[in-house]
């Protein structure tokens, strides 16, 4: 059986941000944003998001590789919330 070429192409890695209850901001990494958001909705994505639901996807930043995505996630997680919002282009005007 011949496979569809699209099945063999890896999905691009992304860093994403969720706005959660109480103003909390969650930063994560994935190579399948739809699957990851569904996992968060089911309660299997992360304990933090499950404890701070409801949540809303606020941004997705495509990256060249898993390493790039993980590096960006790490850098963002080290920032204070106002700096994160500024970096993500989410700061209030």
Brief overview:
By secondary structure, the protein is α+β, with helices and mostly antiparallel strands.
What does this structure look like?
The protein has helices at residues 5-8, 33-42, 47-51, 66-78, 81-87, and strands at 13-20, 25-30, 55-63. The model has no long low-confidence stretch (mean pLDDT 88). 42% of the residues lie in helices and 25% in strands. The protein is an alpha+beta fold and 93 residues long. The chain has a single domain (13-87), classed as GIY-YIG endonuclease. It contains five helices and three strands. A hairpin with a 4-residue loop joins strand 1 and strand 2. The chain has a three-stranded antiparallel beta sheet with strand order 2-1-3.
CATH class: Alpha Beta
Order of helices and strands: HEEHHEHH
CATH architecture heading: 3-Layer(aba) Sandwich
Biggest beta sheet summary: 3 strands, antiparallel
Integer average pLDDT: 88
Short descriptors:
GIY-YIG endonuclease, alpha+beta, globular, 93 residues, 3-stranded antiparallel beta sheet, 3 strands
Question: Secondary-structure blueprint of this entry?
Answer:
Elements: H1 5-8, E1 13-20, E2 25-30, H2 33-42, H3 47-51, E3 55-63, H4 66-78, H5 81-87
Antiparallel strand pairs: 1-2, 1-3
